[in-house]
Amino acid sequence: MKDKIQFFPITSFAIIMGLTGLTIAFGKFYHLQWLPRILYDISIFTVLALFFLFSVMYGLKLVMFPDEVKTDFRHRIRINFFSAISISLLLLSIAFYTYFPILSIALWWLGAILHTVFMFKTISFWIQHNFEIQHFNPAWFIPVVGNILIPVSGVDFAPVIISYFFFSIGFFFWIVLFTIFLYRAIFHAQLPEKFIPTFFILLAPPAVGFISYMRIAASWDNFSVFLLLMTYFFIALLAVMYKSFTQLKFFMSWWAFTFPLAASTIASAVAFQVTNYMFFKVIAWALLITAITAISIVTWYTILHIRKGEICVKEE
After folding, report:
1. Which DSSP helix (H) or strand (E) runs through 103?
2. DSSP character at residue 245
3. CA 220/CA 17 separation, integer angstroms
4. Residue range(s) defining the domain that contains residue 137
5. Cα 305 to chain center, whole Å?
6. Cα 39 from chain centre
7. What's the DSSP call for residue 129?
8. Given pLDDT bands bounded at 50, 70 and 90, which one contains residue 253?
9. Rounded to whole angstroms, how far apart are CA atoms 222 and 216?
10. Assigned domain for 188 exists
């Protein structure tokens, strides 16, 4: 057990992101009267329990093996996943928004403050260290583009200018990092197999951006349509590239498939709620089924590799 704590991966919080995204989708479908409440009830407390478990595990790692945590925080890739902790808190805040508002407020403030700290620490790390282009992968989006998530429940918990502040930062870095990603993908060596699933992270910024903008501006306008259609463009692009994802060896990075699919599902449901266009309802259902399938497969393989003792081991 001591070894498991010592090598408990910070990337595990990507599991919380994926499962909480699905929970929020269940909640949205329940409120639209498309699904029974039982799925929302079960998933919301399951993911809360998992978040508590992972937090305790990583907290024990911090207490028992502080040097390992320092190594994670100084790692050129793993540092980006510390923001998955704060994003998990923000997602849980959204999930509990209508279920338990007092808890939602507490989770949002904790998540927003923690995310701000991780964001500045990560950007400082990027600036103060030398990187090669091969070090870049879409996981870099998490600490900075993740800011787009803050307004989703934050518009009701803090002055709206704070939501605009984080939305602006997230949108700016989406453009900047996507430009770097495209340069990396086209003009340099292919991403290692371990990072191929992170291509799905490209779905998250426009999908979450659409949801966030609708919460801030409550406006079905040119900008909101742009964000939604960019989401659908990336879905189509990834569908065309399906052969790149069908024969991958299992890594924990498979969880990168999950949250972006859930976010796209929620964005489509919101689009239907605003426009009442049946097209968006069909897309929302298709994406929900895809998200459930992907999460089921990734969960199965994760459990399988845990039983084989291949998770919580020393990484390069």
Report:
1. helix 101-128
2. T
3. 27
4. 2-307
5. 22
6. 21
7. S
8. confident
9. 15
10. yes
